Amino acid sequence: MRRLLTRVINRVLLSEPFTHAMGFEAEIHSHARRKLVVGLGNPGMDDTRHNVGMAVLGELAARLGVADRWRGDKHVSGEVIVSEVQHTRVVLLRPRLLMNINGVSVAKAAGKYGIKPEDVLLVHDELDKPLGKIAIKHGGSARGHNGVRSCVDCLQTDVMLRLRVGIGRPTGKTAVDRYVLGRFSSEEKKVLDSVLVQSVDLLLSQLSQQDSQSPSSSPAGGRQAAGKREGRERSASPAEDSAAAQS
């Protein structure tokens, strides 16, 4: 019932998900490759595990030297920065909607800036990976992540590239909801500093590639195509890379 209600809210808030970019945005993007990088999360909940995607996006903005350029955009229900990475126009997006309806902001931004779903990169927390592990996922199901599910619903495809940032699962009797909405401990923050650096390195690598690694299929065919690739992930953790090299 909760999932159905969320989908209804998505639809109500998203009346025209793919309107063409107009005015200034259309002019600056007309002859450039375009990518949309989104940090999924909840507004006003910085430093929580569920907002680690936004933390990565903040680190990316700092690395690009544009951290002071965030601006609110009511047309996309979020905050945006327009920057460039090796001749690719990159739009950074921090949704200002609750995680469960982040997809509304993502779809509006994709429509405004004329960005295809296969050129959208979602950065989000991942319960099934321990803190310190990150991996790229090429499309596929949301795996229970409500923010990703909202994006799939609003963009009407699952071809979006994802950077999954591990936060691990709660121990003992701690509820998952309470855990993901909780803040990182002082010890976890020491690991997180390294994770943010590695995550930005991987994002810049993806954004710098001349040929898109995203599926080339159209949004209508994205779900079936992405499903076949669901297991194709690459870890960015040095420990996992070392283990893979020895196997």
UniProtKB/TrEMBL annotation:
<protein>
    <recommendedName>
        <fullName>peptidyl-tRNA hydrolase</fullName>
        <ecNumber>3.1.1.29</ecNumber>
    </recommendedName>
</protein>
<dbReference type="InterPro" id="IPR018171">
    <property type="entry name" value="Pept_tRNA_hydro_CS"/>
</dbReference>
<feature type="compositionally biased region" description="Low complexity">
    <location>
        <begin position="207"/>
        <end position="219"/>
    </location>
</feature>
<comment type="similarity">
    <text>Belongs to the PTH family.</text>
</comment>
<keyword id="KW-0378">Hydrolase</keyword>
<dbReference type="Pfam" id="PF01195">
    <property type="entry name" value="Pept_tRNA_hydro"/>
</dbReference>
<feature type="region of interest" description="Disordered">
    <location>
        <begin position="207"/>
        <end position="247"/>
    </location>
</feature>
<dbReference type="InterPro" id="IPR001328">
    <property type="entry name" value="Pept_tRNA_hydro"/>
</dbReference>
<dbReference type="GO" id="GO:0004045">
    <property type="term" value="F:peptidyl-tRNA hydrolase activity"/>
</dbReference>
<keyword id="KW-0820">tRNA-binding</keyword>
<dbReference type="InterPro" id="IPR036416">
    <property type="entry name" value="Pept_tRNA_hydro_sf"/>
</dbReference>
<dbReference type="GO" id="GO:0000049">
    <property type="term" value="F:tRNA binding"/>
</dbReference>
<keyword id="KW-0694">RNA-binding</keyword>
